[in-house]
Amino acid sequence: MHATASFNERLAKINIDSSKIEPYALCTINIATGGRRNVGRDAHPMANPLKVEFHFDFGSPNAYLAELVLPEIEKRTGVKFDYVPVLLGGVYKATGNMSPAESLHGIKNKAEYNALETERFLRRHNITKFKINQYFPVNTLTLMRGVVAAGFEGLFEPYFRAAYHHMWVEPKKMDDAQVFREAFLSSGLDIDRIIARAQQDDVKKKLIENTSNAVARGSFGSPTFYVGDEIFFGKDRLREVEEEIVAQLAAKRRKTA
């Protein structure tokens, strides 16, 4: 607990709250849930020119921040990211990795530099809604089963936006069952339906499958991105992600020319 408190205190100075990122909530997103692409409101999607993936867990603040930038990349390149829910605790267990709250503890200057890089990222991308969750790290098992269940029920996008809102915009202790339920109710979701669906075996198995597959492909944390078979880790690799998208699209065009 001491390590968590120290990490959060060092990041507290970058808590920001205003209203400039609301338009991101309107983005159409592709999602990997039941082994197929769920296109949300778009009933007649165009073929994606390249398979690109965003592997996320709601417990990662860096995944939250990175996701806010993805619409910019999609607009410039014409691709759509598949959103793949993984259980970060499962990834850590399988790879021997640990959260920044643990890995930064006791290392002089590293946590301060990490906070500085986060502040720079916020400024660079004009991100104006972000608060460190005082309860971090949060056990995200219920949240992540919920997003898989929501995907199966055609409710991925509103659940996804609400979950990130209650984790990193108006932070709450989202591993508390009552807090969890009240938060999603306040966002207008039929959360009891999603909670019930999340108890089904196919939901649990899909989250395990996503997590296991991610580790098998090289993942060790979140956010992780795949452009075809190329892996990139962290919000600070988004430029490289976009460059790889552009390169692979160009290669595809040359092959068909």
Provide a descriptive summary of the structure in words.
This protein has 257 residues and is of the alpha/beta class. The chain has one domain (2-256): Glutaredoxin (3-Layer(aba) Sandwich), CATH 3.40.30. It is built from twelve helices and eight strands. The strands form two sheets. It has a six-stranded mixed sheet with strand order 3-2-5-4-7-8, with helices on both faces. A hairpin with a 2-residue loop joins strand 7 and strand 8. Helix 7 (141-152) crosses helix 10 (191-198). The radius of gyration is 18 Å and the shape is globular. It starts with a helix and ends with a helix.
Please write the string of helix (H) and strand (E) elements.
Answer: HEEEEHHEHHHEHHHHHEEH
- Segments where pLDDT lies below 50 for 5+ residues? 1-7, 16-31, 33-45
Structural class category: alpha/beta
CATH topology descriptor:
Glutaredoxin
Number of helices: 12
Mean pLDDT: 85
Strand-residue proportion: 5-15%
Number of strands: 8
CATH architecture: 3-Layer(aba) Sandwich
Number of domains: 1
Distance between the termini: 58 Å
